[in-house]
Amino acid sequence: MTGAGAARRAALAGLLLCAVSGCGGSPAGASDGTLDVVVSSYPLQYVAEEVGGEQVTVTNLVPPGGDTHGLELAPRDVVTVGEADLVVHLPGGLQPGVDQVLDQQPPEHLVDAATVADRGADPHFWLDPLRLAELGRLVADELAALDPDSAADYAAAADRLADSLAGIDEEYAEALAPCQGATLLATHEAFGYLTDRYGLRQVGVAGLDPQVEPPPSRVRAAADAVRESGARTIFFETAAGSSVAEVLAADLGLDTAVLHPIERVLADETYPELMAANLQALRTGLVCTG
């Protein structure tokens, strides 16, 4: 790390320590009496808002349409994290800047989303709706610890969220049952949790970071997988562009379709709507028996 980088990290850590220990900061809780919840990606925001309802104020460190990968915190963000009543975060390398700040000064109340994820470097656990429901119950438990008088409300909201997510899961399971074993060819290797849950096979042209250009060897491997499996569609995400998908589609005679990893989410987009759009794209684009 450069001297400037080390100094910046130290400054951020110092700001967080000051924020948490009360160096002129605000008392716990938002000024309107709600609990301050800070999250580090849209899926975590969705869960916190659904479970907390009107009793929480949720701040997402990633702005609408922003890139979740490699998020770096500005000093004001570090203060926001330090003053939060609850932080909901997925550690493990997706956002090393956030990981480092939280390691320097662990929040008193933290929901570690890694407890519902088990695919190592792949962060996209929310593409399995049942895992997202598990996160909802963890958030409800931490909110109840902060606000015992409302514990029943948080538990009931987590139950409602779980029912809604179970409905999404049932729709996927039923619609994709004829597609068991089908190859999901994607430019961004973000759909491992989805393919594991619903019996599909993921082939990614690029790795987990959509901004990293795939090497020729991976492109050749993807082309071989297409020829072997008979896949007819290459899925790409709008935020990363379609150039790789278009080149492969032209070379191999494939269709292209959008599949959303639910990372870069616009202000008017929601998790249920994006999951519904993804299901429609899969049913149209995969090779299924019915």
From TrEMBL:
<dbReference type="InterPro" id="IPR006127">
    <property type="entry name" value="ZnuA-like"/>
</dbReference>
<dbReference type="GO" id="GO:0030001">
    <property type="term" value="P:metal ion transport"/>
</dbReference>
<dbReference type="InterPro" id="IPR050492">
    <property type="entry name" value="Bact_metal-bind_prot9"/>
</dbReference>
<keyword id="KW-0732">Signal</keyword>
<dbReference type="GO" id="GO:0046872">
    <property type="term" value="F:metal ion binding"/>
</dbReference>
<keyword id="KW-0813">Transport</keyword>
<comment type="similarity">
    <text>Belongs to the bacterial solute-binding protein 9 family.</text>
</comment>
<dbReference type="Pfam" id="PF01297">
    <property type="entry name" value="ZnuA"/>
</dbReference>
<protein>
    <submittedName>
        <fullName>Zinc transport system substrate-binding protein</fullName>
    </submittedName>
</protein>
<feature type="signal peptide">
    <location>
        <begin position="1"/>
        <end position="30"/>
    </location>
</feature>
